[in-house]
Write a structure and sequence with these properties.
291 residues, Rossmann fold, alpha/beta, 14 helices, eight-stranded mixed beta sheet, globular, 46% helix
Length: 291
């Protein structure tokens, strides 16, 4: 395989659906017959557990890959740590030990390119490599951004989400200026969205119909929140080429408990259909880049 697409998922705020989006897109890529590797660069190891792998059972992880660049540590390559998962997605897993890597990285000059260099060994084995970065602005995020062809930014409806997007833009600019590497952040995913167009999916068609039939209409607070979300979405659409909305869905939590992407557990759920559409768009985006 000569063509390879590397996508990083980033946001410095936790709880934005970053890992969820990474795994669900990986799942649909796998369903499309693509060979997919998920690289977990978050010490919390949520992508690892989300694919059904228990971090405490692992002998090797991304910690060993990063530490192998330092003298005195074993020469472990990324293909040494990759494990298969029940979903058919390959995983380069994380453990809590990854916390100990960052202080070492600050001591070397080429610290931003460690992950990119590590992935060179396995790029020929995959169609897509998806990188889950931690909710921070540290070296793992920078490594993921530098290694990637595209960056997906996830945003939740919270008050501070836009501020987080501005902070990420600053990091993108710093990488361009200091490293000469272009960060392509052309996709945003709004997760757990509760805009007007998603109320039917959340409440159910009949429930929403009855609510509208017997209700006097939205309260002042509900209307205020609706306007806030509408303005938020408008601002995001100004900053990204493509913006996708994923509604709140209990199916997302249920599929996480199964250690499978939503594509493998609840593909016909409303959130599942949205991630199906996002995956298709990402594949088309990459096709356009190569044309």
């Amino acid at each position: 395989m000569l063509d390879i697409t590397i996508v990083a998922f980033a946001h410095h705020k936790g709880g934005t659906g970053k890992t969820t989006s990474c795994l669900n897109i990986a799942g649909y890529l796998q369903k499309d017959g693509k060979k997919v590797l998920v690289v977990d660069c978050d010490p919390q190891a949520n992508a690892t557990t989300g694919l059904g792998i228990k971090p405490e059972t692992l002998e090797l992880s991304m910690y060993d890959v990063f530490m192998s660049v330092f003298e005195g540590f074993p020469d472990i390559t990324i293909d040494d740590v990759i494990v298969p998962t029940a979903s058919g997605i390959d995983l380069a897993p994380a453990t809590l030990d990854l916390v100990g890597v960052e202080p070492y990285l600050y001591g070397i000059e080429d610290r931003a390119g460690v992950l990119k260099e590590a992935l060179e060994r396995v790029k020929g084995n995959y169609d897509f490599i998806l990188i889950d970065t931690p909710p921070s602005m540290g070296q793992f995020v920078i490594n993921g951004l530098v290694a990637a062809d595209h960056t997906v930014v996830t945003l939740d409806p919270g008050t501070f989400a836009l501020r987080g997007m501005e902070a990420l833009s600053t990091v993108f600019d710093d990488i361009r200026e200091l490293l000469g590497a272009d960060v392509v952040a052309d996709v945003a995913i709004l997760t757990r969205w509760k805009g007007p167009e998603n109320q039917a999916a959340e409440a159910g068609g009949l429930v929403l119909f009855l609510k509208r039939l017997f209700s006097a209409g939205p309260s002042a607070e509900e209307e205020k929140e609706r306007e806030r979300l509408k303005a938020f979405e408008s601002e995001v659409r100004k900053a990204f080429r493509q913006v996708f909305v994923v509604p709140y869905s209990p199916a997302i939590y249920e599929t996480q408990q199964q250690g499978l992407p939503i594509s493998h557990y609840a593909p016909e759920s409303d959130a599942g259909r949205r991630y199906r559409a996002i995956t298709t768009a990402i594949q088309e985006l990459e096709t356009g880049r190569r044309a």
